[in-house]
């Protein structure tokens, strides 16, 4: 894992297939208690400009379990919230903390942080990508099937940051990824193109408007809220548009009989997913949420050189 030490993770496209596989395997070993890396006296700084439950708590718990410390750099209580230039903030924090996890809006902002800070910078969500979520997702798939290679994962809903990172992660690790969205809500063409480049014939990247065809025979069905953070004003208008893309018992019946159901949370039960499916035997949503902590612990240990 020495190739990770000191590195940023801004996008899953930053990783090779081997590096992504190594991170997932390390996550599994940490979860099983086979390794207990330590990062004593090292500090994780959290800069979250968007609301968070799972990401904030899982990063914090992971760092504490590594014997490190966490400082929450809330924008409302620092000069970040008063408009201090990103470059200045990055250069100062670089001298105080050992690693930064940043949740913000523009991908360019986190890239600017990384440009001006020598410490590792981790993307904890931007409008473009959510790489840490997909590390947990791939760990969950591997736990369910023993491998990722050759499986098919179908994502139904909005072509958002989660869909983007799913395409990149699945393409790298060898999962066929199908993304089904309503017209006008497709993922970024640039990200689709990059995912297809990364797949290198290991897997297929399919974009469609047909949720039934996308679900057919899939080993995993995945969804997210239909209106992401910052899109709340359009949430009600989106419901009838996205209704055919709901994960319910009917569409689950089209998938592989042993298919698993995933959701990155928070969920709007009765909208993008039904209560029955979310609480059903094929749901792995709570394992998926737990795996955020294990995957991020692996990432922190790797970039801090503890493994």
Automatic annotation (TrEMBL):
Pathway in which the depicted protein is active: Amino-acid biosynthesis; L-arginine biosynthesis; L-arginine from L-ornithine and carbamoyl phosphate: step 1/3
Record protein name field: Ornithine carbamoyltransferase
EC number in record: 2.1.3.3
Entry's Gene Ontology BP terms: citrulline biosynthetic process; L-arginine biosynthetic process via ornithine
UniProt-annotated location(s): Cytoplasm
SUPFAM superfamilies xref list: Aspartate/ornithine carbamoyltransferase
EC top class, as a word: transferase
Main location class: cytoplasm
Binding-site positions, carbamoyl phosphate: 52-55, 79, 103, 130-133, 264-265, 292
Every Aspartate/ornithine carbamoyltransferase Asp/Orn-binding domain range: 150-302
GO cellular component: cytoplasm
